[in-house]
Write a structure and sequence with these properties.
4 domains; three-stranded antiparallel sheet; 9 strands
Length: 447
């Protein structure tokens, strides 16, 4: 086969459509010119050309130019950037058949609205061209809102996927039915005003969870616990970063570009204050652990650094760290080991505030409740409501609290619970030698 065959143009030119794949354009060009479908294979084999060269040969023979394609495929982070991990989540889609004048045109993967606004037609994310159909005006309005959110970086394939999938499961509807609901919900929970109120450090995690649940219920038309749970777990790294910023007085910094999109206006001028409660309470709202949270969200939220196996993690105490490992819950380097205390993380003051009223400040000096871990096995002194000072470990008081040993009559305190004080008349009836034995026994137990 002569070299002429590579450059000789087809008699009928076919115009490439928006984001059309090479395979789709090749099929339409060959059909329009009556050429066999295996022509590309013969041409490339005859001239010993690689398969990737067919795109250039096709445009030369079709007298066309490759259609420009956006590098982000319609996916942008909140800061305007994009990455390969985002585009890898997308799949090829079919163009609106009315826009393509009846042709079946396959498009490159992209994250634009699944509704053709021009023709009010549902094109979907993964349906065939023959399944496309007309939709009502509510879907067209949702499509316009979808594109606005996408341009502003407030919606991405991860957030839309986890929201729509849980709505599908709980409502028992189709993706077409939940599309306006999902878009409306995402638009409201990513609004700066809503996020500012949700992330307010003066609000407890229980209050924030109920606020999110009310928003999900309002859009879904009923109680949707699984959808609320999924969104709550997606918000977890954002809450950790927001509480850290409020605690240290530093600007809010997202831990990973794939975290829940937070507009800068939602986290500026946050009140500086210490945590009202430990971060471990966050997962208590959904009865999850870091492991079950990671498993529930799946691979889409692995928070990988592009091109590596390194992952961003948030430990149960809210610390951000990275690990080059497939382990979904590695040990946090910032969390202290057993017995060591970190204020606000695992100390008595933050983890067991109900014990503060019994802390013996005089005998424990210079120790304070923020300097002793709640799991410590070292003995410290406590002061009960009746003024008895007694030693006990913080681990014992927080996990298996037996209270004051004198009030519980487990230890003898002369003048309070000894036999002579409790029963003076019976004590007077004892023989002198028995009295000496009781006094000696009391002193021995005190020692």
């Amino acid at each position: 086969m002569s070299l002429d065959a590579l450059t000789r143009t087809f008699p009928f030119r076919v115009r490439p459509l928006r984001d059309e794949t090479v395979a789709s354009l090749s099929r339409r060009v060959l059909e329009a010119n009556g050429e066999p479908g295996d022509l590309p294979r013969y041409l490339l084999a005859a001239h010993a050309l690689p398969k990737d060269d067919w795109a250039a040969v096709l445009h030369t023979k079709n007298r066309s130019r490759p259609a420009p394609r956006p590098t982000d495929a319609g996916v942008r982070h909140i800061d305007g950037t994009t990455c390969r991990q985002c585009t890898d989540l997308l799949i090829p889609r079919w163009m609106c058949t009315l826009c393509a004048h009846g042709a079946h045109v396959e498009q490159e993967p992209h994250f634009r609205s699944p509704v053709c606004i021009r023709h009010s037609r549902w094109t979907g994310f993964d349906i065939e061209p023959t399944q496309q159909h007309r939709v009502p005006g509510s879907h067209v309005e949702a499509a316009r809102r979808f594109d606005t959110l996408r341009r502003k970086g407030r919606i991405d394939p991860r957030l839309y996927g986890v929201t729509s999938q849980h709505l599908l499961d709980e409502l028992g509807a189709t993706e077409e039915d939940v599309f306006p609901i999902a878009v409306g919900l995402i638009a409201d929970i990513t609004a700066p005003g809503f996020l500012r109120s949700l992330l307010d450090p003066r609000r407890t995690y229980r209050q924030a969870y109920r606020m999110l649940a009310r928003e999900v219920t309002r859009h879904g038309g009923g109680n949707l616990p699984e959808t609320t749970r999924a969104l709550w777990l997606v918000l977890r790294p954002v809450f950790a970063a927001a509480r850290a910023a409020a605690r240290t007085g530093t600007p809010f910094t997202a831990g990973h570009p794939h975290d829940f999109p937070v507009h800068p206006a939602a986290v500026t001028h946050m009140p500086v204050m210490r945590d009202r409660e430990p971060f471990t309470v966050f997962l208590d709202q959904t009865h999850d652990t870091p492991l079950t949270a990671s498993q529930h969200l799946g691979k889409a939220y692995q928070r990988l650094i592009p091109g590596t196996r390194t992952r961003h993690h948030v430990c149960r105490h809210g610390h951000e760290f990275t690990r080059n490992s497939d382990n979904p819950t590695p040990r946090c380097p910032e969390c202290p080991r057993h017995g060591a205390a970190t204020p606000g993380v695992n100390d008595i003051a933050s983890q067991a505030p109900h014990l503060l009223r019994e802390w013996d400040w005089d005998r424990n000096m210079p120790l304070t409740p923020t300097m002793v871990a709640v799991s410590s096995s070292d003995r410290v002194h406590w002061l009960c409501s009746k003024g008895h000072s007694f030693p006990a470990t913080a681990n014992n008081r927080s996990n298996n609290d037996q209270g004051c040993p004198y009030c519980k009559n487990r230890r003898i305190l002369p003048g309070f619970n000894d036999f002579a004080t409790r029963y003076p008349k019976k004590f007077a009836e004892l023989a002198p030698r028995a009295c000496l034995i009781i006094v000696w026994s009391t002193r021995l137990r005190r020692g």
